[in-house]
Amino acid sequence: MLATVKLKELIEGKEFGEISEVYANNLPKELEENTDKTIVLLTESNPSLDLSGNNTFFGKTDRVEVQIFYKADIDFDIEAFEMELLKFLKSEHYSITDMREHSIDPDTLQITGVFFVALDKLI
Predict the structure, then answer these.
(1) CA distances from 70 to 82, 103, 121 (A)
(2) Which mean pLDDT values do the consecutive 10-residue runs of the chain (123 residues) have?
(3) What is residue 1's DSSP assignment?
(4) What is the largest CA-CA distance in the chain?
(5) CB within 8 Å of 46: residues ≥ 6 apart
(6) pLDDT computed for residue 123 by the predictor
(7) Which stretch of DSSP H or E encloses residue 116?
(8) How far apart are CA 111 and CA 93, in angstroms?
(9) CA 39 → CA 10, 95, 119, distances in Å?
(10) How far apart are CA 34 and CA 72, in angstroms?
(11) What pTM was estimated for this model as a whole?
(12) What is the pLDDT of residue 98?
């Protein structure tokens, strides 16, 4: 299963009330300008093969970029939500490999957040 699809299922299974929808790999065209929902987009980011030996490999690290597009009319604490999401991902054995500053989308004026996670697997 693709790392993005696996993470999508994991986040959806937790049923975060702050998240309206989660998408893996691409965002539907009709949602690109949506400001009424908090949407999470998961995209693959630099996977790698690890633990090489005997002309093969025995591990893989899946990396995923997590982009959060917050609805325009925020009715929850963004920082508290992100900490809950990050702690949940850590509890599911994901490493938080990078966090970016929040930014404002110039077209929709939505706050966006971006961070990267990784999951190591033995094969």
Answers:
(1) 11, 11, 31
(2) 96 97 95 92 92 88 97 96 98 97 92 97 89
(3) -
(4) 56
(5) 63
(6) 87
(7) strand 111-122
(8) 27
(9) 15, 22, 22
(10) 9
(11) 0.93
(12) 97
User: Rounded to an integer, what distance in angstroms lies between the CA atom of residue 115 and that of residue 102?
Assistant: 10
DSSP code, position 123: -
Three-state SS letters, 3-34:
HHHHHHHHHHHHCCCCCCEEEECCCCHHHCCC
**Residue whose structure tokens are 């690890």:** 50
Instruction: Give the Cα-Cα-Cα angle 21, 35, 104 (nearest 5 degrees).
Output: 105
Cβ count near 4 (within 10 Å): 22
Are 2 and 9 contacting, i.e. CB atoms less than 8 angstroms apart? no
Residue where the block lists tokens 């959060």: 68
Pick from 29, 17, 63: which is nearest to 43 by CA? 63
- Residue 116 φ then ψ, to 5°: -120, 140
- DSSP string covering 72-114: SS--S-HHHHHHHHHHHHHHTT-EEEEE---EE-TTT--EEEE
What is the pLDDT, as a whole number, of residue 55? 85
